[in-house]
């Protein structure tokens, strides 16, 4: 699987092959939700750093993005090395309601500052000392952006994708911190490339200062509020998530004159803005209806009002997993399978990808049909207890989501283990391969592949 291939790249010992391979993997990961939450953070830092009186410098904007990405890369590298050596993920320890709630409050405070309600400012005496210190160092205030990037990587982006898992396994098995650390740093730099491009474009696309900057700051203030909702979404009910998104969109639409009449000779820009505001208002109302009707997804807020969807949900209920809490309990369940194949799913309440698997992959009719005669077991590692850590270590995982498969004799099919999110088509292909391995004669070649 992908994790095993990543581990083999590291074991080859070719430094440049490791750098190139992990940089390419980082570029691919940059297209996933792992990096998306960092875009509004970096963009607001760049916009917020620009003075009304001074024309922003392209080099300055790019420098801020470099500082942010380097902080993110260092954070991933150090956390990855620590995880590989300790068998645990630092970011996983930060994924609890208190940390996420506190971080969300910080983003709310930043958002209201962007809206101009107040100005976040250090005490004057301390600010003078910091200013004197920064004047002695070139780009002294870049240190704050560097720290923000490091914290964002830990708290905002707890991703356990296949390349990262492979690097962690290699470090944990061989304790080659240098080579594994270089791979993780290259991975993080690849993930940060879109952020560098945003930094460069922010400088080139802002040719002059003016009142339009207030609109831009307000825009990023809305993004900050969206970030706060996104952060706490793993630990709050779906109905509350929908209600919060609804409130954000409806209030934003009202502030952008969605309910006001346009002048008779309104400009094209005004018409475009009014149309956008009306769309936001309609989506916000749909989300509010979804919250009141018990919808489970912000992408389908009106699903409960669809006759076809309702009938499909009745005919295809959610997968019924049996929870296991320890290795001993797992071994007992495997011994009781009576010849049925087994799927073991690792889940956590804070794991966004786990919930995506439930909503988008496990709900697929074809996937459910393939799992019809499969014993479904699940490990809930939300509490991150010693038993949870032992189960993760048993299967070489550093956090959810991860899925292990067993044949009818309770033997693990290690090559089929999945790490991270897989869509329905890809997961169905994995299940097809599992079925082929179970049905095929147990030759040496089959054993190697399965």
Structure description:
This protein is mainly alpha-helical. The protein has three domains: 2-236, no CATH class; 237-315, no CATH class; 322-449, Glutaredoxin. The chain contains 20 helices and five strands. The chain has helices at 2-11, 15-29, 38-48, 58-86, 90-93, 97-114, 124-136, 142-155, 162-174, 177-204, 212-232, 238-255, 268-293, 307-315, 327-335, 352-361, 365-370, 386-394, 424-439, 444-449; strands at 322-323, 342-347, 375-380, 402-406, 418-419. The chain has a five-stranded mixed sheet with strand order 1-3-2-4-5, covered by helices on one side.
Find the structural class using helix and strand composition.
mainly alpha
> What's the average pLDDT?
75
Strand content: under 5%
What is the number of helical segments per DSSP (H or I, 4+ residues)? Answer: 20
Following the backbone from N to C, one meets helices and strands in this order, namely HHHHHHHHHHHHHHEHEHHEHEEHH
Strand order, largest beta sheet: 1-3-2-4-5
The portion of residues assigned to helices is 55-70%
Net shape: globular
Query: Which blocks of ≥5 consecutive residues have pLDDT under 50?
Result: 51-55, 133-140, 205-209, 309-315, 444-448
| Radius of gyration, CA atoms, in whole angstroms | 25 Å
Domain count: 3
In total, how many beta strands? 5
The rounded distance between the terminal residues' Cα atoms is 10 Å
For the largest beta-sheet, the strand count, sense and barrel status come to: 5 strands, mixed
